[in-house]
Amino acid sequence: MRTHLQIGGYELEFDREATSACYARIRVPGPEACGCAQCRNWTHARDQVLPSELRDLLSRLGIPTNGEIEVMESPGQSQPHLYCGWYLIVGRVLSGERGHLFDMGSFQLSFTSGQSYAVSEFERQEVCELHFASEVGEYLTEAEYASPPKPKSL
Prior knowledge:
Elements: E1 2-7, E2 10-15, H1 16-24, H2 30-34, H3 37-49, H4 52-61, E3 70-75, E4 81-95, E5 102-104, E6 107-113, E7 127-136, H5 142-146
Antiparallel strand pairs: 1-2, 2-4, 3-4, 4-7, 5-6, 6-7
């Protein structure tokens, strides 16, 4: 069932159940599937840095808190890491200026129509993306950064 949401200067039409069903088919989320030091740092940081408002929004949209489709890292200005990434939503952006950012805790968010690249679990769905950016600190020890990634378990 499609629902409307107005947030941060955007209006969305989305299907929570369809989004949740697509995520349920993803066996290993994006950052966990990678295993590089930057993604491992993000997965260690995630629970501490996601503000409750963002957790609530993700839940409302049908997205698990570990549902990032993609995560990228670069040096931050005030923290060691600037993380950017996105989540997929079954639905569409009805209105809102492309690239318009709004704040939620220490995160900057925006919505875009379509998807950056194909994700088979969302195949044949009309989708939009929720983009995020936030600076975070170190959550891995120096030794963990130097160690090779642990084998992924499916």
